[in-house]
Amino acid sequence: MKLNRFLSSTLRTLGLSGLLLTAGCTNLDEVLYDRITSENFLQTRQDVIRDFLRAFEHAYWSIQGGSTFMLQENSTDELMTPNRQGDWFDGGQYQRVHYHTWTPNDGYTSDAWNALYGGVTLATNSLEDLQGITDPERFSMTRAELDGMIAELRTLRAWFNIRLLDMYRNIVLVKQVKGQTQGGPQVSPQEAFAYIEQELKESLPNLPTRQSLGANSVGRWTQGGAAALLTRLYLNAKVYTGNDRYADCATVCTDMLAGKYGQYALESRWDAPFDYTNATSSETVFGFPGSFGLTHWQYDGGMYFWMLPVNATFYFGFTDFGTANPKYAMQPGRDVDSTEYSFALGKPYIKFQKYPDDVRLKTYKNLGNSRREGMFLQGYLPYVNANGNVDTVRSTKGPYPLFFRDQVGLFLNAKPGTRITNKTSNMNNADQNSGIYPVKYPYYPSSDPNKISSAYAEIRFAEIYYSLAECKYRAGDKAGAAALLNTVRARNYPTNSPSLYKTDGSQLTDQEMLDEWGREFLVEGRRRTDLVRWGVFNTGTWWDKQPDADNHTAIFPIGQNVLNVSTQLKQNPGY
Asked: Which parts of the chain span the membrane according to its record (predicted)?
């Protein structure tokens, strides 16, 4: 990771400082025998492979590193990081994310930019190395094999660039890093879009398919992965460029469903795409391999392990990471007196309860032998303590039994159903009882051989169904949209469930489509993008959140720390 940190720190702000390119070498004719330089780095096939792979670990980290996950979720109607009796106030930074009142001086506005450009520069550096190989046979490689690696790096860079375009819109296209001492100019969103589209379309034919890689496909960009990125690009094109590309999105989705870019299939269980077997799942279009002993970024501080209430690890029987500290929880659907809020957006748990036979509504429970049921931590969480006695998860502020509810307030030791006198429910008035917690990736007990072994599923085949369904809905084909959604939704309900959409699609509205995106892709780091695409990110009302004064917060400011280094950059409008 030394090279990772080096490039991230020297190139991240696109100043491309020339100081480190010359420091430490005063005799330019000196022959260096004891260190690696750009000229002698690639000597063997393994060197090429290491060079090829070095951007991928940073890519995995970036799903949450640099506050990327937090910004995509906490700015929406889905998750919250409230002030829990002094915990997580942190200078009000998370409240500013919730209220869309962030400024360029908030560190996370620089952090996300740096994290994503760290990936862009790493991928570009490796890309230049591999493109400079004129004789692949010297490294025991065929030209097709080398071209495939180059195509994967271009696709990886496109994934970073899509996220930059989505979050900042006015970005710099980094096409070369070697020998560069200054970053390039920002380009229009239209130019960035066209460049990313071209990169993906040109790379796609040289990419492997999932089938050609077999069991080693996880963590590798394939034709299916590149096509899925085109789907994301086209689905959001109207937001990015002002011109919709829903027809192109539908074409790519239809081709993917037909197997043009590799064979994929939905899992029959809702939890299988997130379970320890998902590295070889036919639903995983692109993922990052994870393991307990090595890398497992989705479980780390920036994501799901901090989406657990205090002491919930005792309930799981998983104690390897210590006890939890709940940074995230789902926003409430009810006030402190249990009355449902009237706004249409948000209320994620109530959106699940709309279809009461949803198997995901069960309380999460480990069943033994690497199996679990349910997706939510709610109510009391009983367990057998170290003394062999039945106990329940308790507060660190009492300690009193915690009862997790779809509400936010100072409930403290109040029993369920008891009305409390303090009626305030907002980001600055929560306790450890407040909120329900989703558990998508399993927390099997410490004794389970498959604990913390899931790959991170960045792109699931279900996304292709939902993207095509949205395209059909927008084109007026509600029946076609309902059929696609039901194909995925069927696994969430019993056979012949009344919760499946009617075949004519008459139940589908803009709000229902957005709600269904929220149910299927809850806490998968895309909620902000979906709200912006449906035009409600700035205009919508949800818990403790009123509409914005205008829409400039649909994109983030470029952080002041970035601007201080890269004076050629212009701040985004409105900041």
From this structure: none
Helices (H), 132-188: 143-168
Fold of 207-289+455-508: 1.25.40
Show the 3-state SS of 202-216. HHHHHCCCHHHHHHH
Q: Which among 404, 395, 401 has a CA at the least distance from the CA of 435?
A: 404
Place of tokens 């659907």: 333
**Alpha-carbon distances, residue 156 vs 151, 196, 207, 253 (angstroms):** 9, 11, 12, 20
Please tell me whether residue 382 adopts helix, strand or coil conformation: strand
Label residues 79-113 b or e (16+ Cβ within 10 Å = b).
bbbbbbbebbbeeebbbbbbbbebebebebbbbbb
Alpha helices by DSSP H, listed for 39-142, are 45-61, 68-74, 93-99, 107-131
For 491, phi and psi rounded to 5 degrees?
Answer: -75, -10
Residue 501, classed as helix, strand or coil, is coil
Could you tell me if 265 and 224 are in contact, meaning their C-beta atoms sit under 8 angstroms apart? no
CB within 8 Å of 288: residues ≥ 6 apart: 56, 59, 60, 63, 218, 219, 295, 297, 455, 456, 458
Q: List, in sequence order, the alpha helices (H) in 475-509.
A: 478-489
**pLDDT confidence of residue 23:** 31
User: Of 126, 131, 177, which Cα lies nearest the Cα of 12?
Assistant: 177
Q: What is the pTM of this model?
A: 0.93
CA atoms within 13 A on the CB side of 320: 15
Query: Is 74 strand, coil or helix?
Result: helix
pLDDT of residue 73: 98
CATH label, 38-187, candidates 1.25.40.390, 1.10.10.10, 3.40.50.300, 3.40.50.670? 1.25.40.390
Same CATH fold assignment for domains 38-187 and 207-289+455-508: yes
Cα–Cα–Cα angle for 311, 313, 314, nearest 5°? 80
Intervals of the chain under pLDDT 70? 1-40
Residues 297-341: tens digit of each pLDDT: 999 878 999 999 999 999 999 999 999 999 999 999 999 999 999
